[in-house]
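Ticket closed. Logging final result for DUF3467 domain-containing protein.
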Amino acid sequence: MSKSIEKKATSQQVRVRYEQTTAIYASQFVLSVAGEEVIINFSSGSLPDPVTGEAHLPVHTRIALSPEGAKRLVNLLNQALASNNNSETGSSGAARLPTLNS
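Final structure:
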């Protein structure tokens, strides 16, 4: 599966190629910010430990971003959610996500 996108700064086309097309559901996120790194850990949700019975959060995916990359991700998510909101409800209100302070 590939998708064409065009960069704004130049007219060069870039093809996105999905090496992996399976999706993993995530409803829980653990965020760490350290120095020049923003790390997002994704989990499907908490599970009881079979031995102790205590809840634990199994992380299935971890992504590290620069602060600038994290800000771009927040902006893209805001745009996507606002667009989805507008198409479903006709609302002009923008989706709100936590902002990152640099």
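The CA atoms of residues 36 and 56 lie 28 Å apart. No further action required.
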